[in-house]
Amino acid sequence: MTHKTLAELFPAAAAREPGAVALRRPDAQDVTYGELGRAARELALGLAALGIEPGDRVALLANTRPEWTLADAGIATSGAVVVPIYHTNSPEECRYVLAHSGARAVLCEDAGQLAKVAQVRGECPALEHVVDMTGGGADGALPLAELRARGAARDAGEIAERLARVRPEDPATIVYTSGTTGPPKGCVLTHRNWLAAVEMYAAQVPFGERPVVFLFLPLAHSLARVAQLVTLDIGGTIAFWSGDARRVMDDVASMRPTHLPVVPRVLEKVHARVLDELEQGGALQQRAFRAALSLGRRRAAARRRAAAGARTPPLLVASHALADRLVLARVRAIFGDRLEQLLVGAAPVGPEVLAFFEACGVTVLEGYGLTETCAAATINVPEATRLGTAGRPLPGVQVRIASDGEVLLRGPNVFPGYYEDELATREALDEHGWLRTGDLGTLDDGGFLRITGRTKDLIITSSGKNVTPSNLEAALREVRWVSQAVAFGDRRPYLVALLTLDPDELPALARCIGREDGDAVALAADPRVRELLDAEVQAVNQRFARIEQVKRFGILDHDLSQAAGELTPTLKLKRNVVYERYADAFAGLYEG
């Protein structure tokens, strides 16, 4: 890597092989690296025509799509600072980011996002320009095509002058945290931070030649963003989804990626889908699948032993090869026929889900990081994986466990602080540069990090016992019928939980208990559903100590959602919001 800033990364990537495909989407024409470079240059000069200077903030309010990447490249090439805004944000949340960051311009995806900005624009004193990324300029916005035309009319030599003004230690992005424990904070991530993270991932993850990386996670989140940067830096292709949440897995299969970044909920959904399809089959098919899965588990265990020098029985190899061809390959086909790795982060994955995919021959590389570390800190790699851990530190990252169990991180990818918030910065970073992550964890004898919970999520029962609810909740979400699980029990004698039913599984759940309709409200109140879930909860309880077990549970008649402010855009639980909103429901579980 010869470039020192993101302002150099995009032009360098475009110049390396102009005819190669950089961006691909199922319902749109491919974008080559040459076209990416031209778009970045025209957008950069177009922003210059608007008076945007290096260091000015430019916001991006859009879903994950090729235009996001083109805009990102253009803003970076102009020397300005990218301020991503989640496309699911409310108008008030957009106002907060725009006003707090002092954004001078915002690029909006469509009329819906433009309407949000129009509603709050009067409360954003620094905001001068609004750009329509995909339309003709609704609400008086400047069409993206016109912005590019203005840039194309300017002297291209301006780019070099602007690039020369950008330094590695300058802010490249201000990413606003999703606010699970309070108002969003603006994480300032420098060019040096991002490039360090890109280099770490490229060194550890075996991408191979010309990888195809599928993106559907929000590019406003650092996990998808670093995946985008790595792909472009190594000359791969970014394959985008169609934008239809109901077709995500169909898009994956049709785009045939080699690498797929996901959050745990996606794995849980695919796991449930496979089980549902299995249930619809006959008894012979079910027996064949269970036998194949058993062989897959034994073969995976044998591979781990072989890495230590043990011999694998030839009969196991032959039996597994047959089972794989006839049965297990069908599970992998859900992700297309070229998948090499699933890259998962943002939250712990249940060990049973990980073991299932491993048995099916799907390589899942679980990692750990924060927005404050450009999503990079630790990762499992194919030659060194321990299920249930977040892997070992990436090159250059140091991990330490504090005396109270908190995970501390230090490295070139760790941010310098929060935007215009010195107090929060001092609370996050100590004088030696160690980042207090807020996560609890342990390091085993092999240097693998295991995340055990959040410091602020800690439940202290009335008997003084400390319980971290995240692992219990992850185990409950492994239950096929459960979408979300929220444990509760602070200053109470035992734990209780609220469960929500998985909307995608409602028809199958109705069939399971003999109902004709899959209405969520009716199913939540049906005693047969409670009996079914009670057996599942008791089975999950057996995996935990008595103090960590759920003694009573309730079933909500609706799912938790981002729109209601109960989940972050990456589907993390906003615990304080849920505790407050459902206080009566939690209290009711202790009555009687």
Placed side by side, the strands forming the largest sheet appear as: 4-3-5-6-7
Number of strands: 26
Instruction: Give the overall average pLDDT.
Output: 91
Envelope shape: globular
Low-confidence stretches: none
- Distance from N terminus to C terminus (CA atoms, Å) equals 65 Å
Relative helix content: 40-55%
CATH class of the largest domain: Alpha Beta
Tell me about the biggest sheet?
5 strands, parallel
Number of domains: 3
| Rg calc | 25 Å
At the third CATH level, what is the topology name of the largest domain? Rossmann fold
Strand content: 15-25%
Count every helix, treating DSSP H or I runs of 4 or more residues as helices: 21
Superfamily (CATH H level) name of the largest domain: ANL, N-terminal domain
- CATH architecture assignment of the largest domain: 3-Layer(aba) Sandwich
Which secondary-structure class do the elements indicate?
A: alpha/beta
Would you kindly provide a written description of the structure presented here, covering whatever features stand out?
The protein is of the alpha/beta class. It has three domains: 6-166 and 205-258, ANL, N-terminal domain (Rossmann fold), CATH 3.40.50.12780; 264-337 and 340-454, ANL, N-terminal domain (Rossmann fold); 459-588, 2-Layer Sandwich (GMP Synthetase, Chain A, domain 3). It is built from 21 helices and 26 strands. A five-stranded parallel β-sheet has the order 4-3-5-6-7, with helices on both faces. Helix 1 runs antiparallel to helix 2 and helix 2 (33-49) crosses helix 6. It is globular and about 70 Å long. It starts with 5 loop residues before the first helix and ends with a helix.
